[in-house]
Q: What sequence folds into this?
């Protein structure tokens, strides 16, 4: 039995817990150490089970609490070479840290963590696929302008998938963001829209993904309901049945005390 818990998920902070039988990892540490500690506690999760923190990229919504969290608990930090360099440059690391570059994959205890490269406006961003100690697979795939075939393949092999559903295109276009920022978000190195995400979901379910989680929603250009309905509509039109073929949920911006058992 493995567990995935969204501690935080949105443009204002991201962190996920994935683990089983006393062995776990955190993907990203994008809120303060204190907030992450509190979110862990409210889910009855033990920081001592966390073997490493894997950082997807250097944007602050993914690494804000990293420095304090990693040093307080002596947790090793993994990232791509490009991300590690940017973390270093931004003072997010501490020389006492145990840091390691992840090339393709790394084994920690009985877990396997694989890197999945994502197209985003960061130095060398990636998502992660985690095979837990009991052989279950979960993936975090957010912060990507488009769905690349390799990312699609990686998601298809999982029991649980957190996939970005960042914005509603119409809300973004008619919203208050300045034009260059709108263009950045919509670009191939920006963020995945609700509709681009929704179109992918039936394929994931047919490939065996049981639990779908929509993640990294924009606070300005999306709502949980719009993201959920866009995804559900696509899945239903494809002939798939909610709570029979798949489960669907929106990752809460801040933890709601519920995780996914898979
Ligand atoms: Zn982000
Ligand atoms: Zn980002």
A:
């Amino acid at each position: 039995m493995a567990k995935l818990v969204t501690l935080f998920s949105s443009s204002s902070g991201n962190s996920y817990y994935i683990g089983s039988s006393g062995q776990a990892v955190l993907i990203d540490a994008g809120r303060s150490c204190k907030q992450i500690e509190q979110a862990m506690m409210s889910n009855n999760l033990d920081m001592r089970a966390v073997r490493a923190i894997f950082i997807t990229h250097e944007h602050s919504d993914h690494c804000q609490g990293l420095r304090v969290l990693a040093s307080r608990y002596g947790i090793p930090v993994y990232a791509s070479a490009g991300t590690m360099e940017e973390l270093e440059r931004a003072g997010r690391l501490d020389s006492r840290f145990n840091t390691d570059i992840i090339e393709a994959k790394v084994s920690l205890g009985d877990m396997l963590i694989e890197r999945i490269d994502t197209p985003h406006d960061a130095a060398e961003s990636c998502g992660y696929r985690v095979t837990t100690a009991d052989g279950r697979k979960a993936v975090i795939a957010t912060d990507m302008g488009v769905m690349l075939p390799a990312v699609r393949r990686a998601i298809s092999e999982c029991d649980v998938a957190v996939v970005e559903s960042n914005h509603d295109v119409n809300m973004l276009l008619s919203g208050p963001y300045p034009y260059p920022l709108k263009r950045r978000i919509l670009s191939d190195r920006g963020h995945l829209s609700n509709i681009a995400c929704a179109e992918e979901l039936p394929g994931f379910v047919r490939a065996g993904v049981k639990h779908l989680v929509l993640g990294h929603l924009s606070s300005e250009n999306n709502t949980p309901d719009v993201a959920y309905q866009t995804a559900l509509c696509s899945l239903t039109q494809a002939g798939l049945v909610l709570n029979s073929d798949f489960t669907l949920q929106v990752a809460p911006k801040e933890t709601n005390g519920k995780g996914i058992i898979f």
In short: The CA atoms of residues 81 and 101 lie 6 Å apart. The chain has a mean pLDDT of 97. The chain has nine helices and 14 strands.
